[in-house]
Design goal:
This protein has one domain: Rossmann fold (3-Layer(aba) Sandwich). The protein is about 40% helix and about 15% strand. It is of the alpha/beta class. The protein is built from 13 helices and ten strands. Helix 3 packs across helix 4. The structure holds S-adenosylmethionine (SAM).
Length: about 300
């Protein structure tokens, strides 16, 4: 378990770089669990609901609804993949990675045990999941455990995507993000959208992103609009991401939100980061407002 003293401060936000790129996800879950990191739990029900809507769109368009391709941006160890493809909850993952059963395993032994664990829990209807993250060890774990159907340790903030990544994301139906906006900007989205829309049918994906309330989504939604995507913010809801690690983090975020004129009562005031949810869709697929689309899972 990572010592709290090694969680250093940067721009007010705790820096968890050390746990983002371990050999396996134990440290990630055990450290973030201390702060009740929970945005993938919201992601699970929202993304599953969007996947279902996309399957229906495909069926209407005469395409095979069983073939749904998702790109998880900032995929880390494949946490959203675990929750989208398997009959599991985030609590199940916290329980597994904090258990005595896996505590004594080597990284390699855990990969093997996890591959079997996830295989047994696969859902019949599950998307094909491509992950992108800069954390090489985390992505490698995600691929070897079978959580990710393909994974790429690439930094699109700085580099052009490799041809292999471009081919893997071409024609994708949905891009998902939890906990990643701010680490990735419009640069990453522009490069991904270029490659996704380069598929044979030139289809444009939906983009679904949870974004901390003090982090702007404006540049990203503006970049997405160049591909014909219309972005809506789910205005009725915010989603808990995790508790603040300490007063420095809390004061920083409350200060930023005050400057933005955002009311923090009952939300960040209570000691939690809150995220907004944004959905971007091609105009002709955006007839049902996001509020109505997601109402059953809110
Ligand atoms: C808070 S974690 C979120 C991980 C996962 N989506 C989740 O919700 O559990 C942030 C992730 O962003 C990744 N990241 C940071 N900079 C990145 C970049 N330039 N491109 C892709 N991923 C990046 C980190 O390696 C880390 O896995």
């Amino acid at each position: 378990m990572q010592d709290r003293d090694t969680v250093h401060q940067k721009s007010g936000k705790a820096n968890f770089d050390l746990i983002y790129d371990s050999e396996d996800p134990r440290e990630y879950f055990n450290t973030l669990g201390e702060f009740d990191y929970c945005v993938p739990r919201h992601g699970q029900r929202v993304f599953r609901s969007l996947a279902q809507s996309l399957r229906e769109e495909k069926e209407r368009g005469g395409d095979d609804p069983r073939e749904l391709d998702v790109v998880d941006v900032c995929c880390s160890y494949g946490i959203n993949a675990a929750l989208l493809k398997h009959d599991l909850t985030l609590d199940d993952l916290y329980a597994r990675y904090g258990s005595a059963e896996v505590a004594g395993l080597s990284g390699e032994e855990l990969v093997e045990a996890d591959a079997a664990f996830y295989r047994e829990r696969q859902m019949g209807e599950r998307p094909n999941l491509v992950g992108v993250d800069i954390a090489q060890n985390a992505v490698s774990y995600g691929v070897r455990s079978g959580l990710l159907d393909a994974g790429f340790a690439e930094n699109l903030e700085e580099d052009e995507p490799t041809g292999e990544l471009g081919r893997a994301v071409a024609g994708a139906d949905l891009l998902t993000v939890t906990g990643g906006i701010g680490y990735v900007s419009e640069r990453t989205f522009g490069k991904l959208l270029d490659r996704v829309t380069a598929g044979p049918e030139g289809s444009v994906p939906w983009v679904a992103a949870f974004t901390l309330r003090w982090v702007s989504y404006e540049e990203i939604s503006s970049a997405l609009s160049e591909y014909g995507l219309v972005t809506e913010k789910l205005s009725s809801h915010t989603f808990t991401q995790r508790r603040f690690t300490d007063d420095t983090e809390r004061d920083y975020v409350l200060g930023e939100l005050a400057n933005m004129g955002v009311d923090t009562a009952g939300k960040e005031d209570e000691g939690w980061y809150h995220a907004n949810f944004y959905l971007s869709r091609p105009a002709d697929e955006a007839k049902t407002p996001v509020q109505e689309l997601l109402a059953p899972v809110l």
